[in-house]
Sequence to fold (1158 residues):
Amino acid sequence: MISDQLLSTLNDKLAHSLALLMQAQDLQKLYDVKVSFSGKQGFLSEIMREMAKLPKEEKPQFGKEVNRVKEEFEKAYLTREQALKNQALMDRVRSERIDVSLPGLPLQMGAKHPIHLIFDDVISILNRLGYSVRTGPQIEKDWYNFEALNIPPDHPSRDMQDTFYIDSDHVLRTHTSPVQIHALLQEKPPFRTLAPGSVFRCDSDVSHSPNFHQIEGLLVDRKVSMADLKGTIAFLLRELFGASMKVRFRPSFFPFTEPSAEFDCSCPVCNGKGCRLCKHSGWIEIGGSGLVNPRVFEAVKLDPKQWQGFAFGFGIERMAIIRYGIDDIRLFSENDLRFLRQFIL
Amino acid sequence: MKISLKWLNDHVEVMDFLSKPEDLAHLLTSVGLEVEAVENRSQQFANVVVGQIIKLERHPNADRLTVCQLDTGEERPRQIVCGAKNHKQGDKVVVTLPGAILPGNFAIKKSKIRDIESLGMLASESELGLKKESDGIMILPADAKVGLPFAEYFGLDDVIIELNVTPNRADCLSHLGLAREISALLQRPIKNAKTEIKTSSKVSTKKSVAVEVRDSQLCPRYAGRVVAGVKVEPSPAWLRSRLESVGLKSINNIVDVTNFIMMDLGQPLHAFDLARLSGDKIIVDRAVATEKFKTLDGTELVLAGDELTIRDQQRAVCIAGAIGGLNSGVTEETTDVFIEAAHFTMDSVRRTARRHGLQTDSAYRFSRGTDASGVIRALERAVALIQQVAGGDVAADYWDVDSRPLQRQPIRVSANYVSDRLGYSVTDDDLKCWLQRLGCTVTSVDGGGEFEVTPPDFRSDLEQDVDLVEEYGRLNGYDRIPETLPSLSYAPLAVDKDYAFAARVSEMARMAGLSQSVNYGFTGAKYQSELLGAVELYRQCGLQMDISPVALRNPLSEDLNVMRVSLLPGLLSNMLHNYRHGSSNGNLFEVGHVFRHASEGYGQDSRLSMVTWGVPTGVWQKDERPERVFFDLKARLGSILAKLQIFQVQFKAWVETPSLAHPVQAAIVFVEGRNIGFIASVHPQWLMNEKVRTGVAIAELDLEALGRGQPRPVKFKPVSKFPAVQRDLAFVLPRDMRANDVATEIVKSAGRLLQSVEVFDIFSGGHLPADHVSVAYRMVFQDLESTLSEQKLTELQAQIVSNVEKKFAVKVR
Fold:
């Protein structure tokens, strides 16, 4: 047949091109093979032009052969192309080796001051018991800071708190207790309130800062007992320090509570066995508390026969010292990032 | 205050605690008398005994030393080498044995001195810590018992308890007072020693001196008695030792007796030299204004006029209850004394003592309240003791001007009430029993189970029923109080909005990478005003700052003498601290209060302040231009505002800047058209002064203004399902034009299809005209309803270009 010669050329060229495909080492070279074989100016186009010269009866058979060859080439091309693509990806991936020991990129989150960590934790625990936060002025009237709290002028209990004076009638509040008075004057009992805040005492040494923080709770209801107070404080301290915490009350004196109690918790460092933090007593002093003195109700014109209450409060810095083992009170006001960034919680 | 166990034992039996003072300390602390320290004196003198020199020879190898054989009550004599000269054979001496540790941590050991063995040391008074200096070793009287521990011999086998007495327990500021408490607790009787006075008919108080109390309000009781012919001299050893054991200095026998009675019974006394009183009359009255008064210790006071004084016919001779006068005190020449025992009201003594800085033991006790009913007993004890230690004749009569108000009202209380308040059950009998042990008179009121309780005179702190609740509770031990949780049958109060907002802003600032600072509310006036510059300029930013900040009357120091008007003095000093301690970059914020004068009193405003400094480390792409820090902080501020759902924000150049701010890198922040604060680079002058070699940016915002309408709810906007298309445009702008103005115009021209526009490149130089920059904007277009056509986009872009070019007379690039 006339087409035999042409058919042989076709098969030879296919075999040659398939070999070229396998030899091509990158996608460009592979594409070049494709162009020269099946492109517009390529071998197959040329052979189609040759086919036109064939006798009519041989054309269909030869045409089939060309299609078969074309398909076979395409298939081989795609296979090879995928292989080369895979190869290229593998090469790139291999070239992207990193030193995994290098530090990660810095994260952008800032730290919370430990004073606020304690505030937030105490507030969220007492929120569950129905206490709502309330604030008050830091430059406070003498009446709110002292007199209404049963601390009359020229009374020895004024000596308990070294006071900064602004003028004859205004002080920097020495405790968060004046917020109790604002609450008693503004709210209708029964209620529960919680006052976190900044307080000032005219006294500064290695363990006392002239401006520190307290939080204070107040509950007013028809009947309130020391047992309720102790239970509330115990709940708070166990939530803060863990369920095995024990709570101890010691008699004390605060003009605005009667009876008054200081409260201790079993030392969270040694679990009450005795260590340096608790001075080998097994107990840590936390704060003060008591039943609201009827004189305080009288001062805010509430009938002490109708209303009773309890109050408790403690220093935040001290709590942070116990909780985190902070050993220098200056750290609270220096705001050193090496200190603060330990409290990204 | 210091309590001696042996002294306490005069009033109640406590010697069983000598070997275990911790038990007593624990007991006292558990009832509210906090023990701060327990000092066991006898332990200081362990291995120190009384010995006798039975043989004394010269040291064979040293002329100045002696070799002594001592009888120390041991089986065999003890050989000790001694360098002193004042001892002889037969002397009783103080022998320190190996193992003794003398003051100054001086440990006694066995040794060899010039080849002769020495098994201890003969001690001098200074070596024993009894005197500052002494000559030679201590020679004891011949009757000292050989072998007796020195502590016991010298009366130093005592325990000193240091108590922190709360202001309500003035009754416990004496040995008798504490003894009463122990008596109630342990049910041990009070030893009531009889006071025997040999009076003399030769002497009469009332004939020697008249007493007139002109201010009985401040002096409800005044008593006094004369002892004539006393001999003023040093006190006997027992009295000296008693006073020294509780930290008082011995002065002379008369003054020592008054101090002894004060520590013993809690009643301060004063001794006048009768001969030095002018006019034979004592007047109790307020001072004369501007009157001068010289105290016993020589301090000259100018009196204001309302101080209560003890006066003679001419002048003040004593500030009542606080301190005596130099003009009338007991001296070595004194022969006749007038002993005063009085009751002055606490307010008056406290006010006077505070005003004149008179921190005496007497003022301390009077200002906490003394027992007026104990005045005569103290006076009798005092004159008896004076007679014992200084001789003299005690007058048979004495003054007692008593104008105390009538008896106290009894307190009504029931076991039910006590039980309700403590939270555990209390029986009538038990309550009655404990109150009686405290010295209260308890009588039952018919029906209702109530008692009428009259506390003893010395317990003036017991006034209300709750005071009795506390007494019962503390004596029974607070450990008995159970733990219960009060039930909640009412709605919780509203949340404090300001506090909640401050907490939320703090959280957002933390999320924006700033760490939280907490600074003092006060600062130094000079530091603050020099740092901030002209504070009135901050008003343009909506920040009120007083030109003269609220000042403290009694500051601790010049560094903390005014209230802060801004949070920046604190934050910038934090920044410097960090920078100098190795943090070359960082971000801090503070949410806190600043203070100002208000129309009525004072006001406090909440602020948010931020500081950013340096170039972040750990990021490969570093931009070290100083203004980078400004934009770093601006991004953080932007993130906080966005989280607060605040989108209408403008930054306008702050033209009149204070010295702290960089004059051309400062902006006033407007939120919804209202100025609420500023953001700025810190002035390079400050950086130079503080030797900071990196950029620092600061911001301060009024938190109240920021919090308007907060919390703002999130408003949902639908999200397009069709593709977004990005288009870039660059305009050539004069350098002093603000890029944001063009962006605003783009937003206006593009309408609802524009989703966002932002500056993504700034370029100057090249072919651009001088003083011009090319600002490239990237716009994102998207339609909610359909895919945007190319034609629509081209139209939009042409519209934008034409509007911007027309409005600002600028050219697209």
Summary: Chain B touches chain A through 94 residues (CB under 8 Å).
